[in-house]
Design goal:
With 183 residues, this protein is mainly α. The chain folds into three domains: 49 residues; 66 residues, no CATH class; 59 residues, Orthogonal Bundle (Arc Repressor Mutant, subunit A), CATH 1.10.10. The chain is built from ten helices and no strands. It starts with a helix and ends with a helix.
Amino acid sequence: MYMNFQSLVVLDAFLLIEIIAIISSVLMILVAYFTSRKLLKDSRQTSLLPSSSYFKRNHSYSNSFSFKKKKKLFQKLTTYVEDQQVFLNSNICLKELSDALGTNSKYLSLAINSVSKKTFIDFINHYRIEHAKHQLINIYDLNYTIEAIAKGSGFKSMSAFYNAFKKNCGMTPSNYLKKHLKT
């Protein structure tokens, strides 16, 4: 019996050592987890702050692209858009236009924003709405529906067409049609 008791004491000691080892492993894992989490959080916060090289690069970027250059690029853009009628393409994007004009999309976007005081999509939608207005006035000659005119003017959906039309004209396409049929 004495032997049995000794074995239990030795067994309990080994069990106690294993429990201590497990607890210390769990504690080390928790410390590592929270330390890495804090480091990740700190690195995200510092990456959100602009570095001095970032500031210099972007500051000189906007200074080197004067309003005169923006206006020249914008005129080149309007000529291209009007001649090629790219606004009729419902998938037209800033990158595609900048490639066609031999510039980058950041410069083109700056030119549109600065000169027209519009976003790229508002700029394109302006041309689409002008095209749609011309089509609406001739709707009976062309035998089109308003939906066909919207699609033919480069809009992907009727809701986009109605929203853009109201934004540009202050009325719905139907009201525009009624107004111009009276005159």
